[in-house]
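debug: dumping io for the single-chain case to check the tokenizer round-trip. Nothing else runs in this session.
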Amino acid sequence: MNNQDEQRLEECYCPAQKALSILGGKWTLSIIRELSSGTKRFGQLQKSLKGISPKTLSARLQELEKQAIVTKEIYLEVPPRVEYSLTTKGESLKKILLDLVKWGTENLRSED
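debug: decoded output
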């Protein structure tokens, strides 16, 4: 997120609008969905998110880290190991994701 985007976010007063500005980015909900089943490494995330570029995945993970939704654990091993998981704040999004799935299932037909 650049400075102009951050300024727009600060000018936004509606909590729902703020949440959508953080979660509405392409791939963001998919990343959270993947991490909702447990800790994953970068390669695991990239493999499960067909079509995401490493640059985009890295940028989304950094943004989610900045928002305290995802935590990054670096293990000083050879080779280095990095794992991503949801924070408590991130875990609280699981119910919202399930509600979105339920709403989509009930209200959106596949031919729409």
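debug: round-trip ok. Residues 94-107 form the longest helix (14 residues).
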